[in-house]
Specification:
730 residues; alpha+beta; 4-stranded antiparallel sheet; 20 strands; 40% helix; globular; transferase; RNA-directed DNA polymerase; Reverse transcriptase (RNA-dependent DNA polymerase) domain-containing protein; RNA-directed DNA polymerase activity
């Protein structure tokens, strides 16, 4: 409860400083510094929150119908002694069906004894019946049209939301524009509703796999969508879908959310939850005290909007025809095709023949099917595991228990392996991913990521100090294209050719022992340089070296780090057709730690080789950059050193045209010893998207250069429509 002066300042003067920030205003000092609201128990506070010593006014509230009946009986007994209360009570009894908001306002204005307990009881009954009236009399659903709910918070500042007029303007609910139809619910996007690869692989058995492989697919009936390389349907053209409702929704992209009606009662709850969660998340990231203080006010203001008068003035109520909605993928499409997203263009759907999709997964795992016989012969990357699911879970639980890693294994499972097509490759290739939010290895992945991030930061800082003294760059890994652009800026090339390539078998062919040795080489150097701090303290959010005890942190020695890294690499399992497969070569795919493991492994190889080279070679290879598995160098002579750096196992495929290349989102060209750099960003916005614009970008900016090569046009001449058409025709 706030002080009386503060309530007056907030509600009567409609100030934007209601959160204890009025100390600088003349005559308005001594307000409560914090709100006495109950935060969520799982919310982490960044400052102390003492409850102000404010005298609270007692209020009479009603929670159920039993209390209402008791209050009514008490009021009837006291009515003869108080004529004013009797008149108000009779007015309430005779006008139950009228708008109770107006009645409540009249009662509050006319009663003289505001501290009367009897009057408080009467007001409690009126408020309770007013809420009941809104719910019980809502026979015809009333729908309200607003922008996507997140845009309420995006377009309005948190502190400005205390003004009713601004929020009403945002909701398009002026007096002259009250005839509206819809409200957008926070429903799942199209990708979660219509992609069927996950559900298909979950229920896939060996008998079903054999049956699908022995049946003839229907690709011959639609030759216009068949890929000439494989002879099966692999397309992004939605015309292959027979259901018109599903086709209409899929054309809007993976991030589109359908328009679903929402009743008033549910709308209030969504507003409250949205306001609470958003304010807390923003405050948690920015550590802003004022946002935490304003949380209750924002949510209460949203609720008051849901209970205000214009909710009952909406006329011409209309419902959305159910025929225009499509809740899930239809049965015909589910039986014939696998629907996924497109690699490097995640807002586009890819439709693949179901038989061909399962065939590619079987080839990746080394499964062969002859008539009705299935054999798990394995290959260089995967082999059939001899351990059942219970044994795998018990091994992970033992590691979590010994290393004090928090994990709820009851909600975890062995991840499925799936594939997404690369439409920017000719011929079309597939990216195989083995990961899930509920993977049994995820807690271990997160712990290793926190530890190896400390190792990576130390190695990068050490190499940068060496570069400042000698001028030789021995750390090639970059996190973004801006580092590359800044290094190439105002630089002249001594060569007319450059080098750009990517690793084709980084995640499939490298022996596990080589990966572990390379990562532990950097980890050991990091531990040895910590001046006696032999333990790294880690939790779910961060890690650091220290020789002292820290609450809520688990210390790990070098031996324990090596054990966890080795266990994760050698125990990477996937599930397909009721069988468990283990990865025997390559960096584990799909896990949280997979990119970091690959990056550190290549970094160790590069640092080891450059440490044995003379100064001439170091100077020659100084202008080299690598983003995980994409390598770029301003000197083409690096091709003479790649075999010595990365060994004969890793294969590099060149992607440059000698005097120009696309690296990340940069278009780099050599012209008369000058380096021309252009950014190649494609921003394709899904049409009719109900979400904010920033979530509708369908092309990853860091990977848009791959789209550039396949469009076969200069990037500055390609417009959004042509890029979208390119994916539709694929």
């Amino acid at each position: 409860m706030r002080r009386e002066a503060e309530n007056f300042w907030m509600h009567q003067l409609v100030t934007i400083y209601p959160f204890g920030m009025n100390d600088k205003v003349d005559g308005m000092d001594g307000f409560a510094t914090d709100m006495n609201c109950a935060m969520k128990q799982n919310f982490k506070h960044y400052f102390s929150n003492p409850v102000p010593n404010v005298k609270r006014r007692t209020k009479f509230t009603v929670n159920n119908s039993t209390s209402t009946n008791k209050l009514t009986e008490a009021i009837q007994k006291e009515i003869p002694e108080n004529y004013e209360i009797r008149d108000m009570y009779q007015m309430f009894r005779s006008n139950k069906n009228m708008e109770t908001t107006k009645l409540l306002k009249e009662v509050e204005n006319t009663r003289k004894d505001k501290e009367s307990l009897l009057a408080s009881k009467l007001l409690a009954i009126i408020k309770l019946n007013r809420k009941k009236h809104i719910v019980t009399t809502e026979k015809i659903p009333i729908f309200i049209k607003v922008d996507f709910l997140n845009s309420i918070m995006e377009k309005l500042g948190i502190r400005n939301m205390i003004h009713d007029s601004k929020i009403e303007r945002m909701l398009h609910l002026k007096e002259s524009n009250c005839k509206v139809n819809l409200v957008y619910n926070l429903v799942k996007n199209n990708f979660l509703r219509f992609s069927n690869y996950n559900n298909t692989l979950k229920i896939l058995t060996q008998n079903q796999l054999i049956r699908i492989m022995n049946e003839e697919c229907e690709c011959k009936n639609s030759p216009e969508f068949v890929d000439t390389q494989y002879g099966h349907i692999i397309t992004g053209n939605t015309a292959v879908i027979e259901c018109p409702k599903l086709r209409t929704q899929i054309e809007k992209g993976t991030k589109h959310r359908q328009d679903f009606p929402l009743t008033l009662s549910k709308f209030r709850g969504i507003l409250y939850k949205l306001g609470t969660d958003l304010v807390e998340s923003i405050a948690r990231k920015s550590k802003d005290r004022e946002l935490l203080k304003s949380k209750t006010l924002v949510t209460e203001r949203l609720i008051s909007i849901g209970e205000s008068r214009w909710f009952h003035k909406i006329g011409d109520q209309q419902t959305v025809p159910a025929d225009n909605m499509c809740h899930k993928i239809d049965r015909t499409t589910n039986e014939k095709f696998i629907v996924t997203c497109v690699d490097k263009a995640a807002n586009n759907f890819a439709i693949t023949c179901k038989k061909f999709y399962l065939m590619k997964l079987s080839e990746e795992l080394g499964i062969t099917i002859n008539n009705k016989v299935i054999s798990f012969s394995g290959n260089d990357t995967y082999e059939l595991s001899t351990k059942d699911t219970t044994t795998i879970f018990s091994e992970y639980e033992r590691v979590y228990r010994k290393r004090k890693i928090t994990a709820n294994t009851e909600k975890l499972n062995i991840p499925l392996i799936f594939a997404i097509p690369k439409f920017h490759k000719v011929p079309i290739k597939y990216r195989f991913i083995a990961g899930a939010k509920t993977a049994i290895s995820k807690p271990l992945n997160i712990t290793i990521v926190r530890i190896l991030e400390v190792v990576k930061n130390y190695i990068r800082n050490y190499c940068n100090q060496t570069k400042n003294r000698s001028g030789w760059n021995t750390y090639w890994s970059v996190n973004s294209s801006s580092i590359v652009a800044n290094n190439l800026k105002n630089r002249k090339s001594r060569s007319d050719t450059l080098f750009c390539a990517d690793f084709s078998n980084l995640f499939t062919s490298l022996p596990h022992e080589d990966i572990i040795d390379a990562i532990m080489y950097l980890t050991t150097r990091t531990f040895e340089a910590q001046n006696g701090k032999k333990e790294i303290h880690c939790n779910q959010y961060r890690a650091f070296f220290s020789h002292q005890y820290h609450k809520n942190y688990t210390p790990y020695t070098l031996y324990e780090v090596k054990y966890m890294v080795e266990f994760l690499i050698k125990n990477s399992y996937v599930r397909f057709a009721d069988r468990n497969f283990v990865q025997i070569k390559g960096v584990p795919q799909g896990g949280n730690a997979s990119p970091l493991l690959a990056d550190l492994m290549l970094t160790a190889m590069e640092i080891k080789y450059l440490g044995t080279c003379d100064n001439l070679v170091k100077r020659e290879l100084s202008v080299s950059f690598r983003y995980i598995d994409d390598l770029f160098s301003l000197n083409e002579n690096i091709k003479n050193h790649t075999a010595a750096i990365y060994g004969n196992v890793l294969e590099l495929n060149r992607t440059d045209n000698r005097n120009g290349t696309a690296f990340l989102d940069l278009d780099i060209k050599l012209c008369n010893e000058k380096i021309e750099i252009k950014t190649t960003r494609i921003s394709v916005i899904a049409m009719e998207n109900t979400g904010p614009d920033h979530i509708a970008t369908v092309v990853d900016p860091l990977q848009s250069s791959a789209v550039h090569d396949n469009v076969e046009q200069p990037m500055e001449e390609v417009d959004d429509a042509e890029v979208k058409l390119h994916y539709a025709e694929c």
